[in-house]
Amino acid sequence: MTSLGLRLRGALAALQLPGRSHAAKRHVAVVPSRELTALSGCSPQDALHRLRCSPNGLSLEDAEARLAAVGPNVVARNGHPGILRELIGRSKNPLNALLLTLALVSYLLGDLRAAIVISVIVILATATAFVQEHRSNNAAAKLRAMVKTTASVRRRDPMRAEAENGFAEIPIEQIVPGDIVSISAGDMIPADIRLLSTKDLFVNQSALTGEAMPVEKFADVAKQAVDDPFDLANICFMGANVVSGYATGVVVHTGARTYFGQLADSIAGARELTSFDKGVNRFIWLMIHFMLVLAPAVFLINGLTKGDWLQALLFAVAVAVGLTPEMLPMIVTVNLAKGGIAMARKRVIVKRLNAIQNFGAMERAN
């Protein structure tokens, strides 16, 4: 959640829009559902009726049925793509495409040795990066599995003798719409909820709205229409956290249907190129442009002056191969992998090798 929260803050900051109040609120093109707005205008009893639940919470059977229907309460994250997709992702870059094209041309022209050497270089560079990143991804997945987040939920379960005031701690992934939850100082809001009762409740929504100061929340019915759902005093959104006070509420949306989940889904899948990626790509395209100019020029000049078009073609291919830095993928990958291994000795997991250059380019703030 920490890395995802940082990315959410960065995305929100980049899409800042002018707000209506002195605290500039930051929003993206994700709109909270009308159901939240409608429930804010209902009394707590009517809200529970519309969500088909009771103040005593859901039964275990009802909770399991709803969990099967809506899915677990998790937001989007960069999932594990699988070995084949990882290999394809590592091999997709302009330099590899150029080298494999030259290897194919060399093979068709009968230069089997050059084709094998170029292909082996590409395979070794891709395999080295894949092994390093695959191991890092597995280690990060194991670390995530060790972190368990729970929430206080009221369930009608006679076997839970340890429950306090009807509430018991359950994994946050098992929360479903209609659950009755309790929140207190230091808790994270586990889902989009409609408050049922509050006592001096102050919530920090800065991760969602950009407001630095906490806002006070109440369970009273919203009597006035508002343009911004974040101004609804009886609605708490997933991703916010409780600064002080105590409250109970009923879960309205979970997982991807929450505002936080929609926001995370809109940015989690898109990985921005690092400055290192951009620099390497610029160099590669520069070499490709040189090759597209020089190779045809050499082919035409040799063919017109000597009349042997086959030899002119072979010489043009040799020029193209000579202009191409065949060892660049291997050199870059080995050096980045070496940096990843060195950081692993310091108990730092590097999921993307190309990010190492960004770490090295950081400057200490004064």
Characterization of the model:
The structure is a single chain. The chain has helices spanning 2-14, 34-40, 44-50, 60-70, 83-91, 94-108, 112-146, 206-209, 259-268, 275-306, 309-323, 328-345, 355-360, and strands spanning 58-59, 150-156, 167-171, 180-184, 192-204, 215-217, 235-236, 241-253. The model is unreliable at 1-29 (pLDDT under 50). Strands 1, 2, 3, 4, 5, 6, 7 and 8 form an 8-stranded mixed sheet that branches. The radius of gyration is 29 Å and the shape is elongated. It folds into 2 domains: 2-73 and 175-268, Calcium-transporting ATPase, cytoplasmic transduction domain A; 83-145 and 271-360, no CATH class. Helices cover 50% and strands 14% of the residues. The chain is an alpha+beta fold. Helix 1 crosses helix 9 and helix 6 (94-108) packs antiparallel against helix 7 (112-146). It starts with a helix and ends in a 6-residue tail after the last helix. The chain has 13 helices and 8 strands.
Please provide a brief summary of the model:
It contains 13 helices and 8 strands. With 366 residues, it is α+β, with helices and mostly antiparallel strands.
